[in-house]
Structures are given as structure tokens and as C-alpha cells.
Design brief:
- The protein starts with 9 loop residues before the first helix and ends with a strand.
- The strands form five sheets. It has a five-stranded antiparallel β-sheet. A four-stranded antiparallel β-sheet has the order 3-15-6-13.
- It is built from eight helices and 17 strands.
- Strand 8 and strand 9 form a beta hairpin.
- The chain folds into two domains: about 110 residues, Jelly Rolls; about 140 residues, Clavaminate synthase-like (Double-stranded beta-helix), CATH 3.60.130.10.
- The protein is of the alpha+beta class.
- This is TauD/TfdA-like domain-containing protein.
- It comes from Gynuella sunshinyii YC6258.
- Keywords: Antibiotic biosynthesis, Oxidoreductase.
- Its cofactor is Fe(2+).
- GO terms for molecular function: 2-oxoglutarate-dependent dioxygenase activity.
């Protein structure tokens, strides 16, 4: 972390990133709303200020992800808005062995439905309006896809529950089952969406890799482990932070006021 870097421009932020961890990558197959500022630079996830973003490893819901995340704070929130962090090695170690092994054996299946109006549409997620480009992307990434009509698409992908850091050789917990699963929703929202769309029509959901249901209680236990191992990083204007995306999960606290934090992935 660099504290008090001063009046850093977006261009100089990009130059710093390129000179240290290499070229940036695009936010393809994204799961959250964010704006593309310029080459490789995006806003941090644009969830409403009153919402908390749970701890997660970026793009661990798919099979290709960024090694490093760079954050730059142009303007800190009036209150709140801290970035939360947790050691993914500790999360792996503290999840009970029986739960851990079940996930490791089966993996995690992510199901996403686009076009219902309750989540990102496929054009935003795949950064294109060309259906053929979407299909090519899915085939390359081993993502199953089904077009329901002109504007509705379902994708299914089975991915890892854990991974091994390619430099340190350490095993880490690496998935987003606790975010995608329907139990992550507030009870009243969950009931309303299931009533309107049915379980199979939910904008996103997660199950074990064999298609069987992940128990709510297990995911609640995993969320508790994340919470117990959370470290809070409060931002100041001019701060720059580098996160190893495999070794550390990150999230965001709710906040008040204007908050401008940018991210680059390499």
C-alpha cells in the first residue's frame, strides 16, 4: 500500500501498474456493474452506497482471473467505504475439513440468467451486442449457454472451489458460491424473486458442480468465517493499494458521501 501518493492522475496510475505487474486485462464476463474509464481502468463496483459488498476473490466464479488488483482512491467517502480484506489461505484452513473436501471434490456450478431486468444484461456482461461473439467466448471458456429468445440467455459453468497460488504453492479458498447462491439475498428479496422467476429463472445462483443443492447452513458458516477473518482498510485520498487476488479476498463497506475508487486488473 502507498499512502498519500498525492494528486495522482489516471494516466500515471496506469503507468505505475504497467511498470510493475504488466499489462491490464479487460473486465470480461463481469458479475457487477462498473464503468470503463479508459484503457484498463474501471470504477470499483458500483453497488449503491448503502450496500455492503461481501468478501470475494475477483472473478473466482470463472476459470480465468486476474493475478493482481490495483486500487487507487481519488476521493474517500465522507464516512465508511473502507475496503475489507481477508487471507484466502486462512479461509481455506478454517473451513471444516468435511465441507472443504465436498467442495473440492465437486467444484461449484454457477448459473446465470440474463435479460430479466433484475441483473446485468448479457450485452453488458460480454461487452458486445453480437450473439456470435458471446457464443465464441463461452466455447473458449467452457461455459454452457442457451438462448431463450432475442434478449434472454442462460449460462452455466462448473469451476474450482479452491486453487493453488502459482508462486507460493499455497492452497486457498477460491470461489464465489457464497455470493451467487440464492441465500445471499435478503429473505424478502429471495422470496419475491423465486415467486416471480422460479428458482431456475433467478438472475444468478450456485450449486455443487454435480448440480446438487448447496445447503444454506454451510454457506452461512463460510460467510461467518470470512467475517471472523476480516481486516478493514479505510481509504484516504491519494492511497494506492495492490492486492494479490489469489491470496486475498476483498470487499467494501457501506458508505456516505461521494467515493471515487478506481481499479486495474493485471
Amino acid at each position: 500500500m502507498i499512502r498519500g501518493a498525492g494528486d495522482v492522475s489516471i494516466d500515471s496510475f496506469g503507468q505505475l501498474v504497467a511498470a510493475t505487474t504488466g499489462d491490464s486485462i479487460n473486465y470480461d464476463f463481469g458479475s457487477t456493474p462498473r464503468s470503463h474509464i479508459q484503457s484498463g481502468v474501471y470504477t470499483a463496483t458500483e453497488y449503491p452506497a448503502h450496500q455492503t459488498i461481501p468478501l470475494h476473490n475477483e472473478q473466482s466464479y470463472t476459470n480465468i482471473w486476474a493475478d493482481y488488483l490495483w486500487f487507487y482512491c481519488e476521493k474517500a467517502a465522507l464516512s465508511g467505504g473502507a475496503t475489507t480484506l481477508a487471507d484466502s489461505r486462512e479461509i481455506f484452513r478454517k473451513i471444516p475439513a468435511s465441507i472443504r473436501q465436498k467442495f473440492m471434490d465437486k467444484g461449484v456450478m454457477y448459473v446465470r440468467n440474463y435479460g430479466s431486468g433484475y441483473d446485468l444484461d448479457w450485452q453488458k456482461v460480454f461487452n458486445t451486442t453480437d450473439r456470435q461473439e458471446v457464443e465464441n467466448f463461452c466455447r473458449k471458456r467452457d461455459i454452457q449457454f442457451e438462448w431463450k429468445n432475442e434478449d434472454e440467455l442462460t449460462t452455466t459453468q462448473v469451476c474450482q472451489a479452491h486453487t493453488v497460488h502459482k508462486i507460493t504453492g499455497e492452497t486457498v479458498w477460491f470461489n464465489q458460491a457464497h455470493l451467487f447462491h440464492v441465500s445471499s439475498l435478503a429473505p424478502e428479496i429471495r422470496e419475491a424473486l423465486v415467486e416471480i422467476l422460479g428458482v431456475e429463472g433467478l438472475p444468478r445462483n450456485a450449486c455443487y458442480g454435480d448440480g446438487s443443492t448447496i445447503e444454506d447452513s454451510i454457506l452461512d458458516e463460510i460467510r461467518g468465517i470470512y467475517e471472523e477473518n476480516t481486516v478493514v482498510f479505510p481509504w484516504q485520498a491519494g492511497d494506492i493499494m495492490l492486492v494479490d487476488n489469489v491470496l486475498a479476498a476483498h470487499g467494501r463497506q457501506a458508505f456516505e458521501g461521494d467515493r471515487k475508487v478506481y481499479v486495474m486488473m493485471t
